[in-house]
């Protein structure tokens, strides 16, 4: 029996690549709109952590994580384990990746619903310069917690249709996907969509759903299917571009942000077949929405130059800073300090209350030895005590801003600032922590935490 959705969260990176900027750089049509772009220090894992933290803001601790992406940060290594560690979860749990196709999102959702757990959907979309994938893609993440309890949405029915046909593909190691002629994809997808949707609605006993979400890497097939299954209430996709494995989750989160109890939602994912899911929104939705809606996450953003985007994506190799590159992070010390490095857990002296960041055995205030308790700080707000702007440090996006953070409730530490310019940082600026990639060296990603303006 499928579990219901207990909570959800989404994440949209701050940077935006405007279509007008694309047009100006490539000498092609511009137009309005923009795509969301992950920063140089973000990947599918870090964005997945951000969405998962939003979904677990109520303090829930899932026993399983199902992570779906088409752009894993690692191959031959489970990426979901880093998400598990960053969430400070008990080691008695399960974490697994579903990678390669956007259809993995459905696999993650169904596995989490069947056994209870957290489905994390996260993706970076990269296309060849000037391609439709580059213009219409977007980077984002979403997470959904399933389990027993009072659900905010219940799964009424599921149906699937599968067929083998060559519409989109990408060999391992390639940045961009290949696509077949557009008309062929429409002809292949539409019968599958009609079949899966018809069976799902019949099983749920729903003639016309209130809201319909159609997500597919094939834009024309998705648009045609949306016209044939409009729903009673018009649904608009978040204006950040198609976000691959994250797209169904981001659009479902946006629908739940607006939905009212009793409404039905038809979620259609057309990728290498079609998967249709019918959900009913429950009364608990009114008190379980996340602090930040998808619309709020999409609003604003920092405009990005096209050359910077190409550099971050590895499509433009530029002269690096003339500084020594950082060394490869070592596995043993990272393992020994897992709670600190990945979950940002300090220690609090039980004798005097002093908070130590990083954790210590001996209190710097009262000198008590081994009188410590855990002090999780990743969700603690902070403020800038002082800061420095380093224009000489090795960084893909100089200048580097280092901030000394005073955490609410105690603790002080120096962190790199993320998603901020020097003009946005001053003494007293409110900050929040974000899980990022400090650098990559020798094929190893050095994950840690940064501070961004709240």
Describe the 3D structure:
With 454 residues, the chain is of the alpha+beta class. It contains 12 helices and 22 strands. The protein has 2 domains: 4-312, Thiolase/Chalcone synthase (Peroxisomal Thiolase, Chain A, domain 1), CATH 3.40.47.10; 332-453, no CATH class. It has helices at residues 19-26, 44-55, 80-86, 104-115, 132-136, 182-204, 219-228, 247-258, 294-298, 306-312, 331-336, 338-341; strands spanning 4-11, 15-18, 34-37, 64-69, 94-99, 117-123, 140-147, 153-162, 168-169, 178-179, 211-215, 264-269, 273-281, 302-303, 345-349, 355-356, 372-376, 382-390, 400-407, 412-416, 430-441, 444-453. A hairpin with a 5-residue loop joins strand 15 (345-349) and strand 16 (355-356). Helix 2 packs across helix 3 (80-86) and helix 6 (182-204) packs parallel to helix 7. It is globular.
Give a quick precis of the structure.
The protein is an alpha+beta fold and 454 residues long. Helices cover 24% and strands 30% of the residues. The mean pLDDT is 93.
């Amino acid at each position: 029996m499928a579990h219901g959705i207990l909570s959800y969260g989404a994440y949209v990176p701050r940077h935006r690549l405007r279509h007008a900027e694309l047009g100006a750089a490539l000498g092609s049509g511009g137009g309005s709109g923009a795509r969301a772009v992950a920063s140089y220090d973000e990947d599918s894992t870090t964005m997945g952590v951000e969405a998962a933290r939003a979904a677990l803001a109520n303090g829930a601790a899932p026993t399983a994580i199902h992570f779906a992406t088409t752009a894993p940060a690692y191959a031959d290594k489970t990426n979901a384990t880093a998400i598990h560690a960053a969430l400070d979860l008990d080691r008695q749990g399960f974490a697994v990746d579903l990678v390669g196709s956007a259809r993995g999102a459905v696999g993650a959702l169904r596995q989490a619903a069947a056994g209870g757990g957290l489905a994390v959907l996260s993706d970076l979309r990269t296309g060849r310069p000037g391609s439709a994938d580059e213009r219409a893609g977007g980077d984002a993440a979403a997470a959904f917690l399933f389990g027993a309890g009072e659900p905010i949405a219940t799964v009424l029915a599921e149906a699937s249709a599968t067929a083998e046909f060559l519409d989109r593909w990408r060999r391992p190691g390639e940045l961009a996907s290949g696509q077949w002629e557009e008309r062929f994809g429409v002809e292949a997808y539409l019968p599958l969509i009609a079949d899966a949707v018809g069976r799902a609605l019949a099983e749920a006993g729903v003639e016309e759903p209130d809201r319909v979400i159609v997500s597919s890497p094939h834009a024309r097939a998705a648009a045609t299917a949306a016209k044939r299954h409009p729903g009673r209430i018009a649904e608009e996709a978040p204006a950040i571009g198609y976000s691959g494995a994250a797209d169904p989750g981001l659009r479902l989160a946006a629908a739940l942000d607006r939905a009212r109890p009793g409404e039905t939602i038809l979620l259609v994912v057309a990728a290498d077949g079609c998967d249709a899911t019918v959900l009913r929104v429950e009364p608990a939705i009114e008190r379980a929405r996340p602090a930040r809606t998808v619309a709020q996450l999409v609003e604003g953003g920092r405009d990005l130059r096209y050359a910077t985007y190409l550099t971050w994506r590895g499509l433009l190799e530029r002269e690096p800073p003339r500084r020594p590159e950082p060394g490869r992070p070592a596995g043993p010390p990272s393992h020994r300090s897992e709670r600190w490095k990945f979950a940002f857990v300090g220690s609090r002296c039980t004798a005097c209350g002093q908070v130590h960041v990083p954790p210590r055995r001996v209190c710097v205030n009262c000198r008590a030895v081994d009188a410590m308790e855990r002090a999780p700080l990743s969700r603690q707000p902070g403020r800038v005590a002082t800061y420095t702007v380093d224009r000489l440090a090795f960084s893909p996006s100089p200048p580097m801003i280092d901030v000394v953070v005073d955490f609410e409730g105690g603790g002080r530490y120096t962190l790199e600032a993320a998603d901020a310019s020097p003009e946005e940082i001053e003494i007293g600026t409110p900050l929040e922590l974000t899980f990022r990639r400090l650098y990559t060296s020798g094929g190893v990603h050095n994950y840690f935490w940064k501070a961004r303006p709240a």
